[in-house]
Design the sequence.
């Protein structure tokens, strides 16, 4: 039998009104004033008199903390906070630049200029030196090209992953300074 893994919606659900299944709660009124430990049915009656909902704020506390408030407004504020947090987070992309072993100097400079733009924009950059056919016999030339690239990008990016062989490629990753 496989265990049931709660989805995000189930985890984020907050118990309110009749869904609160404990005997007593620490009650906070709509102004933030503590009313003490009250039986749940009494707390629910007080909330109904004020035409508000009883919302469980801290279910893991002993006894659980419940507050009298408008549940719809509470859900709206939670969604708004989540949206603001999502807006503030930064997403770092990994851009990739592939180079052949026989790349000419000018072509290399053009590719490195693009890599520098990626790094100044705040993205990571993965550089791959590819070996085609019998070029794999000249691993030393590939390593020399890799170290040349590292020298060229010294001021713009930090070498996050040193050059390493991955099949027929040499891979290295740079992160912005």
Sequence:
């Amino acid at each position: 039998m496989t265990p049931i893994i709660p989805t995000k919606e189930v985890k984020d659900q907050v118990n309110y009104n009749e869904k609160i299944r404990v005997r007593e709660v620490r009650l906070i009124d709509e102004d933030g004033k503590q009313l003490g430990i009250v039986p749940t049915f009494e707390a629910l009656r007080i909330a109904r008199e004020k035409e508000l909902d009883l919302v469980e704020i801290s279910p893991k506390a002993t006894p659980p903390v419940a507050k009298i408030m408008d549940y719809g407004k509470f859900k709206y504020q939670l969604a708004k906070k989540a949206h603001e947090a999502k807006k503030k987070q930064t997403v770092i992309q990994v851009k990739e630049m592939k180079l052949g072993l026989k790349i000419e100097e000018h072509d290399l400079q053009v590719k490195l200029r693009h890599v520098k733009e990626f790094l100044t924009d705040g993205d990571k950059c993965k550089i791959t030196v590819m070996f085609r056919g019998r070029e794999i016999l000249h691993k030393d030339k590939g390593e020399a090209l890799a170290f040349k690239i590292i020298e060229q990008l010294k001021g713009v990016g930090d070498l996050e992953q040193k050059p390493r062989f991955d099949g027929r490629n040499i891979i290295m990753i740079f992160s912005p300074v």
User: Anything to note?
Assistant: Strands lie at 24-28, 34-39, 53-58, 65-69, 94-100, 124-130, 157-166, 169-176. The chain has five helices and eight strands.
